[in-house]
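Allow me, if you will, to draw on your knowledge of protein folds for a short while. I have a record of one protein: its chain in single-letter code and its fold written as discrete structure tokens. I remain grateful for any guidance, and I place the record below:
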Amino acid sequence: MRPLVPWMSKVDDTLLEWLDDHDIAATPKVICVNLETAVSYSQVNRRLWRLEENDMVFRDPDRNDYYAITDLGRRYLHDSDASAADFPDKANEQQ
């Protein structure tokens, strides 16, 4: 079972799962149109920014609007020993 991370939403799980399953860097639009659940483009875009802030995804440096999952994102999905403390809200830590 995945940890309950306070700053994450159900959409985040959907995005991370899609990126993990496809193992590619993709734009928010490509991700949005290929999701099996109905999620708006603006929500996909917002949540990818949030995931990037917290090192769960990264933007491809050569193609700025392309996102890929990180090792931390994969750890969240697959590490049964992971806890919510392993995924702090870095945006709120800086304030």
About this structure: The mean pLDDT is 95. The helical segments are 10-22, 28-34, 41-53, 71-78, 90-93.
